[in-house]
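OP here, attaching both records as promised.
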Amino acid sequence: MALLTPQGVKKVFQFEKPKGREHLRRLLNWEEFDEVRDSRRSILLDTLYESIIFAVGKGFPWVEVAEVVKFTEELLKETKGCSITEAVTILGNKLRDYQGQFNTTHLLALCDYFHNTFIRHYKLYQYVLGQEQEVNLTVTHLEVCAPPQPLPLAEGMDRDIWQLEQQVAELSTAEVQKRTNMLLLKEALHMEQDHKLQRKFSEVPGQPSRVLKREELENLISEAIHVQIECLKELLQYEIQITFDILDLKLQKKTLNLKAPIPSPLSITGQPGQDESLKLHKANKGKKAKAKK
């Protein structure tokens, strides 16, 4: 409290609140503390700071402002753990002890201030400043990802045009997928055909070097042709279906292109062809005006 001089409290008042509170902490010779973890000390510092604001607002001289801070700190210490009746008695005794420090007007103002703040909310002060508080604090470090840098507005496009391009791109992707499926099916059918032919040839009785009879050879050729026709039939059916699907996708893309929205004037400004058209239009307008004259 030795550092709490009139000049010191004047600086506290002249600073903004955060800087003023920090300056008051140094004047009180308090060690630095965590405002979140040590909430009691933070509230006590707020109470002392508010007493300075009160005293200055009431026109107390700077010498008396320093005494108000001293008065507040002593009152909070002496009433710790007391009943409200005892606190009122202690407040009255302290006001009497400080009669020589303040004039009558300022003493009455100080009495009203503590009756309307400290005594009125006495239980709250006792609960916060008079007993230990259990603090459960969880600290989580979160990484904040900044949004990506937006592209220049000149590279932007109308929302409807962008949506159209997305739909066309999806249809093109679906068309490519259809063609890919077709190639995969062809390969699978060829492998299945070879497997069936191999199985039919392996069912021929007798030694491999044995000469086949005419009837056996005809049956073998007939079965081989049947296998090839079945595979070809399945392949043709799938090709027809795929072709219809691709044509339908092309028709959808054509329809979308016909329904494409007209670009706004802002979006077409700066395009080479458009600029030339505008210049030509202005030139023709000027020639017509001269012809009329």
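Record two, same layout:
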Amino acid sequence: MLIEILKAVLFGIVEGITEWLPISSTGHMILVDQFVHLNVSADFYKMFEVVIQLGAIMAVVVLFWNKLWPFHVKNEKPAWKDGALSMWLKIIVAVIPAAIIGVLFDDKIDELFYHPVPVAIALIVVGVLFIVVETIMKGKKPSIRNIGQITYKAAVIIGLFQVLAAVFPGTSRSGATIIGALLIGVSRATAAEFTFFLAVPVMFGASLLKVIKYIAAGVAMTGSEFVILVIGTLVAFIVSVFVIKFLMSYIKKHDFKVFGWYRIVLGILVLLILR
């Protein structure tokens, strides 16, 4: 059991790092699974690799609670914070396209694209896009410098880019939304922050969907599997806190090209190792 706990810690570390850096948590989880197999049922693992993201999501909730929580007390009554309703409406607008695709085609997408080769191709393609977009946008001043300046039109565009990640594992949800945001003039810091906020409903929804399917399949979770799930999720939360802080500090002085090059190298390695 100790070995399985250590494996769960490793998966949690990988999830915590790769969920927020635009380098594809899916690609990394596939690689880790190829070399470090958890001693669990196939049905449990499908659920585990999605639900473990809840730990990463809770890091966003904790770090950005003041911005995410839409209410404050005014005249001894709860009231909307200035701009909070608008922000959440934009988040919902941006989430809807990926949510529809996820609910309708989740199993089909897993069947068609959740394999090493499609994931590796997505890693490489989006890596190239990062380098190209950063080169094109170099020297241009962003027109949108905070979330309040994001329009509903911009939210829809960012949401459509998020669909790419929903359809093609390995694209990276954060990577796709950041590229979309940069192309329409959103600053790097605002693009990253909005991506974090979008992840909250998207990943809660994805986790809920997987749990419902797992329960509907009539599979019983063992005690050891429950421990693995809890530990992996907790480690993902702790690591995510540090990674999010690092990324927000890093992009104040640097662009995303390094992540593009990393994705290309990783994609090539996946093709070479897992072909």
